[in-house]
Amino acid sequence: MAKVSMTVNGKAVSGEVEGRTLLSTFLREGLGLTGTHIGCDTSQCGACTVHVDGKQVKSCAMFAAEADGAEVRTIEGMANADGSLSVIQQAFQDHHGLQCGFCTPGMVMAAASLLADNPKPTEAEVRHHLEGNMCRCTGYHNIVKAVLAASGQDAGQIAAE
Amino acid sequence: MPKDGGIGASTKRREDVRFLTGKGRYTDDINIRGQAYAWFIRSDVAHGKINSIDSSAAEAMPGVVKVFTAADFAGVGGIPCGWQVTDRFGKVMQEPKHPVLADGKVRHVGDPIAVVVAETLEQARDAAEAVEIDITELPAVVNMKAALLPDSPKVHEELTSNLCYDWGFVEENKAAVDEAFEKAAHVTTLELVNNRLVANPMEPRVAVGDFESHSGQHTLYTTSQNPHVIRLLMGAFVLGIPEHKLRVVAPDVGGGFGSKIYHYAEEAFVTFAAKALNRPVKWTSSRSEAFLSDAQGRDHVTKIQLALDADNNFTALRTDTYANMGAYLSTFAPSIPTWLHGTLMAGNYRTPLIYVNVKAVFTNTIPVDAYRGAGRPEATFQLERLVDKAARELGVSPIELRRQNFIKPDQFPYQTPVAVVYDTGNYHATLDRVLEISNYAGFEARAAESKARGKLRGFGLAHYIEACGIAPSNLVGQLGARAGLYESASVRVNATGSITVFTGSHSHGQGHETSFAQVVAEMIGIDAGQIDIVHGDTSNTPMGMGTYGSRSLAVGGSAIVKATNKIINKAKKIAAHLLEASEGDIELKDGKFTVAGTDKSVDWVGVTLAAYVPHNYPLESMEPGLEETAFYDPSNFTYPSGGYACEVEVCPETGKVTICAFSAADDFGNIVNPMIVEGQVQGGLAQGIGQALMENCAYDENGQLLSGSFMDYAMPRADDFPMFTVDHSCNTPCTHNPLGVKGCGEAGAIGSPPAVVNAVIDALHRAGRTDIAHIDMPLTPSRVWSAMNA
Amino acid sequence: MHNFELVKPSTIAEAVAALGQEGAQALSGGQTLIPTMKQRLNMPDMLVSLTGIAEMKGVCKGDGGLHIGAATQHAVVAKEAAAAYPALAKLAGGIGDPAVRNRGTIGGSLANNDPSACYPAAALASGATIVTNQRSIAADDYFQGMFATALEEGEIITEIRFPIPEKAAYLKFEQPASRFALTGVFVAKYPSGVRVAVTGASNDGVFRWAEAEAALSANFAPSALESLSLSGEGMIADLHGSGDYRAHLAKVLTKRAVLAAS
Q1: Which keywords fit this entry according to its UniProt record (chain B) (predicted)?
Q2: Of A159, B669, C149, C164, which has the highest C-beta tally within 10 A?
Q3: How far is residue B283's CA from residue C119's CA, in Å, rounded to a whole number?
Q4: Fold assignment, A2-76
Q5: Contacts of C242 in chain B (CB under 8 A)
Q6: pLDDT-based confidence at B471, cuts 50/70/90?
Q7: Interface predicted TM-score (ipTM) of this complex, two decimals
């Protein structure tokens, strides 16, 4: 067991982990941040997407010890300071960008990462960026719409109803 | 209508807030103090005899609590099947035993052999490697037709063969159908495969068992679409636990698509082990394990034939289908290729004579059961591919051939030759509508533009009918169902007027917490925010049958309407008393009770308060309180229908198919929340297009799963699709449920696969490749290229 | 997965020392290794993380062309190589998905030499030099078949040096599930001639297509490939495509890469 310390959603945390403890396990079981989900074991579904030092990563494909000293952000840290939904979260609700909600945290984290780099993406860029995040419910239609809307673009103009 | 909260409003979903902030509570988020972890040791061969299991070394390993094998389950029932099909000779199907843990034999890769329970999951996995299992591998049978040969290995020794049943429908029609084929002016024949699929909801299955020794109370937390069904099946048939001592909770569930209907061995295991060990036991499936243990979908091999007269009228239809059951009968498996498939073979057409034969076959593969659409996609795919092929053979437009043979709008209710009666529909309207929204008129110009870029463009059409809102319990009972198919609701009005609705239906993405509240808000005329929907816990909801078959609103919603009407009736009585008027004069509008033709009124809260503080109340004739329960059992199925149009581009160099546009014109009857309905269709389309183009669950000849992870099972991603055009403006309300709704959950997955394949075939034919009559799904680049280069 | 000890050296020397221990393996971005360990197909006693070694990171121009530290993530290559070697940057930007590109490294990819990976095609087509803690290996000598390389036990890649071509392009036809290359072709035109490397297709891993190289060296145009064909013999055949299909794709992609080369 080794001690790791990191900042998660702005709060300093630490805990004892084994070498094999994944970052996702540390977040879910160590810190009780169960918004980060595990949907596969081959690092493809993206439900476990979080930000480490500002970059989106799959927390099931990174050891907790590798995040020692890092700034980690999870879905629990995405709302506005007053607890209201952030622009991206609100766009997902407004445009019905989620159904069962399981892929949603990863989608929001991936979308946030895209919009940080590319504030006005095209539909194709949104779809391409979400390549590593699987959703089985929405057919992606409303997720793409939500991300475009969150970027301030008129999703109604782009998206067929 | 209450502002933004009643029927017909695209009310934003209230459940979204918890999901968007990471506050959803899924089964894997539940950890009970003191819980141990279960790891299932599964067979790595498809067929084998278990000679011995030695767990002594494993049991001595750190953290190991116990290793369970079949021996621990002596005296425990097997996993039950919920539907008994009777074959064409009047004999009941062959029904093999399905032990919780493999007993003596393993019958598919993934068949559970033993379970290690340990203090941590990793300790359980470590110890699993030390369990010594000696298995003699036996020849496996994977191909259905081979499985029916006399010398085939038998999946189950206790059965006479690998044939589960040989079903004929309608058996009495067979001779007349054959005769019609004799007389036909033209016969179109098509052989096709409906590919095996894996449902793959993004949340893998999880089960946590808990036991309270002092009260004898069992609790199972599970990823289920129907917790009451699990309580009934597991309690009564497997573990012998009476309902009052068994609570089943399905909290937030991350998608199901059918795969979370069934009662699985892992649920029985954790419930059993929690008592045996007197501590909570948790099992979480990995995705790799899900590929080996979740019931899979479809897997039909069919020959279908259509007879037409000289005027291109359909005169008869016959089909021969082999349906793969896998190694065991999953909960509803026998019903899928029969009652959910054969009864839909009329489609949207007036074909007067139909005969459907289905042979259900056991193989050494993972069990197969319902997957989104369940039987109806199989029927629709065959029929809509066949009609397209017939049109090409006859040199007529597939659009016009459909139009000519559609049931006409004035023929409803329409009795089909395959038992069901369609109450309403207007297929001509949805056909016209889909041609309009897909801008079919502009297709030639788009095809020319594609051609200029070296691509082959095609347009494909498909129409579907489905039977949803399952179902009349007395009817399905006659057909072999071992359960009822009603739904329940309790409406509890609180003293200050807020309402808690308890539904037996379950939401795992469908948005019931929002749309069900809209129904009640509309009926009473109060704000939807005053109404909460509770579901998923057998300890506080009335016995319900759960969510599948696009039934939640049609059946569960109707139960809520019934219970709410009881509430309104009683509330009117209370209002009449308070207003000193006769009950018949009381009108409820916008949450206010008024004496007709006067300005005398009492508001909703005035009445609800009176019900719970009955100081001025007719206690002699009425009980206080305001809480009602209703069960709704439908009198018929509902029949959503629609026209789907797909436009594709095929790359002639690589065979890659790109979806350029997809349009859906659906008739769902009345609609409560259009936003949610559109979302359901979009999701269904993605699954149907996924089936058509990329998803394929494949086994090798030894029964090894070739597509056992997302590395080989192609899940559709965001960049596989364009934006979809979905429309629900053509609607003919259902005539036999109070909301006039039909159900929308499965439509997208039913109508889209034939539309996609028809579009690809159209593209190839337009490019002169009229020799390619059919390509089996999925139409991967390599398959299309191979067809073009055969 | 089995437990192990994770060590995080900050210099190449420390990493090499750690890797000298029994059961030690290098961990780079982990995007392939971690899933393999979850399946318990790989069970190291110790993982030596290379991603914290500053001297193994970064993209810069040098004598050998473009020098890329082995622990540099794909996302960084996609950005920082864009000006000097756009085809390479584009390849890096097309590996996996954004999250994978933020973790996965060029050195990790080359050390693993997955037959469907993208980077091996770039290294081989560019005639890159694989620099390790011990020596420099020419790409032509480095790739030795599926998952096999010239690396010795305990040897780690520290840097990759890419000679910059006049023109180049990489085109990948994705396997529909994994989105690895079902077949990928990297074409690079140098003053000395054209090099063509094919990944995803062969049972022997990445390979150079000599006939295409000769034809394109004489005439750098898609038409130069018209009369050529690759045999499906020895090509990977699986659920996603036959050997013939892969061989066919290799030709189609080579033509497209020539057209796309800039």
Answers
A1: Molybdenum, Oxidoreductase
A2: B669
A3: 39
A4: Ubiquitin-like (UB roll) (3.10.20)
A5: 782, 786
A6: confident
A7: 0.97
